[in-house]
Amino acid sequence: MLVTKIKEYRARFNLRQDELAEKVCVRRETINKLERGLYNPSLKLAMDIANVFKTKVEDIFEFKEE
Hints:
- The protein has helices at 6-13, 17-24, 28-35, 43-52, 57-60; strands at 2-4, 61-63.
- It is globular and about 30 Å long.
- It has one domain: lambda repressor-like DNA-binding domains (434 Repressor (Amino-terminal Domain), Orthogonal Bundle).
- The model has no long low-confidence stretch (mean pLDDT 95).
- The protein is mainly α.
- It has a two-stranded antiparallel ribbon.
């Protein structure tokens, strides 16, 4: 199961889903699905999101066994 901290990072950076989506060239729905754990990002997308938040991929995404 993929666990993300995107929502928490968006709050810290005062970004809406659509604003983050624009910065990483995806649709807002993709960010929404990521936040709800319904979508596994590509490595490039995960790195792009981490770059927006100036952190490491593993600080935002974590895989946990169910």
